[in-house]
Design brief:
Elements: H1 4-31, H2 36-64, H3 67-82, H4 91-105, H5 108-119, H6 127-149, H7 157-174, H8 190-194, H9 197-212, H10 214-226, H11 231-259, H12 261-281, H13 286-294, H14 296-314, H15 320-349, H16 351-373
Helix pairs in contact: 1-6, 1-7, 1-10, 2-3, 2-4, 2-15, 3-4, 3-5, 3-7, 5-15, 6-11, 9-15, 9-16, 10-15, 10-16, 11-12, 11-13, 11-14, 12-13, 12-14, 12-16, 14-15, 15-16
């Protein structure tokens, strides 16, 4: 029997942590007097660990076959590493502390994704019903902290994040290991699976799609604050986007059955190109910002569910965790680093509109890769 609520609880607290980190970490860094380029660099350095960490931990987990054991160790070490943020605020101190923290924290999600899909006994389209609780956690966190930071200093982000990391550790202790007999087996070695053209094309598209999100994840809150939006309203805009994402997760299994993951990826990348232009050129119009946030359901929710489904399809045991790790490394790692780095530079040189234009171009490039290289028979 699938441990639905225990898996859902882990997703809840994991993405509640993201709901604290992504919208408010940049604001915290700004509050301690870092410039836009320094904020971009610090976030890029934190994301740099996603390139290597998931693959190292994924290799260990696949080799040992103790997926939840690896997850529990990584969750424990992430709590210890994060405590370093209380000890200093210099550029290089925070860069090192957050890189080490992310090295352990980034190991958690690939293990969880693989364990969840395995508990689903191959019915990967039902993944969205579990993953939607991550979206609920994000909403609770981002809205609650938005109201909190209207009343107290942004320093309180640090103990809030530590509390959420401790909750992740508790959930890691109660999620059971998967039943290995229900998992498919691959006869191909890992490098041959990885080097298949349709697999490479999918990863390139995911890299470009995530890089297009760079200005949004790095500067959206700072951008809106400069237009005098309150932190509670900023939190509500973040939460609204994820609320729309929940609706997509509820129906995603039916959408994929009818249209297929490739078409979902095409629509997601095309819509992302439009969304970034709306945010970049109309920040003073709250109605347009609300519409752009509604598109988050497509540009992240539908995109991520389709990508996860294809990764599960392409990588079978004993490569399942490394497949999820490669996906995380290429998209959220390489793509995230590029996104934060270029947006930090472009924000200072070309302004917000020019930066979001670059994001739109990257999303269109992702659309082209899916259209020409991820063929329907993949």
């Amino acid at each position: 029997m699938m441990p639905y609520w225990r898996l859902s609880g882990f997703y809840f607290f994991y993405f509640a942590t993201i709901g604290a980190l992504i919208p408010y970490w940049g604001l915290y860094l700004k509050s301690i007097n870092f410039s836009a380029s320094e904020i971009g660099q610090l976030i890029a350095l934190m994301l740099l660990s996603r390139i290597v960490a998931p693959n190292i931990w994924g290799w260990i987990a696949d080799a040992r076959g103790q997926y939840m054991g690896v997850l529990r160790l990584a969750a424990s070490l992430s709590v210890i590493a994060f405590c370093g943020v209380f000890l200093g605020t210099t550029f290089w101190w925070l860069a090192i502390v957050m890189f080490v923290f992310a090295f352990f924290w980034d190991a958690c999600l690939p293990q969880l994704e693989a364990v969840t899909l395995s508990h689903l006994a191959g019915h990967s389209r039902a993944y969205a019903r579990v993953r939607l609780w991550g979206s609920v956690g994000f909403i609770v966190s981002v809205m609650g902290l938005g109201y909190l930071f209207d009343a107290v200093a942004l320093w309180w982000l640090l103990p809030s994040l530590l509390s959420l990391l401790l909750a992740i550790l508790v959930m890691a202790m109660i999620v059971p290991e998967w039943e290995t007999q229900t998992v498919r087996s691959s006869t191909l070695p890992f490098h041959k699976v990885f080097l298949q053209p349709h697999v490479g094309a999918l990863l390139v598209a995911c890299f470009l799609m995530q890089a297009s999100h760079g200005p949004y994840y790095t500067f959206y809150s700072i951008y809106l604050e400069e237009y005098y939006y309150s932190k509670s309203l900023i939190g509500m805009l973040w939460a609204f986007g994820v609320l729309c994402e929940i609706g997509i997760f509820v129906i995603m299994h039916r959408v994929q059955l009818r249209y297929g993951a490739r078409r979902v990826l095409l629509v997601s990348s095309g819509v992302a190109a439009v969304r970034w232009l709306l945010i970049g050129f109309f920040p003073e119009h709250l109605g347009i910002l609300i519409m752009a946030q509604a598109l988050h359901a497509i540009t992240f929710g539908a995109y991520h569910a389709a990508a996860i489904s294809l990764i599960y399809k392409f990588f079978a045991r004993p490569h399942q965790v490394r497949g999820q790790a490669i996906y995380g490394s290429v998209s959220f790692g390489l793509g995230g680093v590029l996104g934060s780095f270029y947006s930090g530079i472009a924000w200072s040189r070309f302004g917000p509109s020019g930066t979001f234009e670059m994001a739109s171009i990257l999303a269109l490039a992702a659309f082209a890769v899916v259209y020409f290289a991820v063929r329907p028979n993949s």
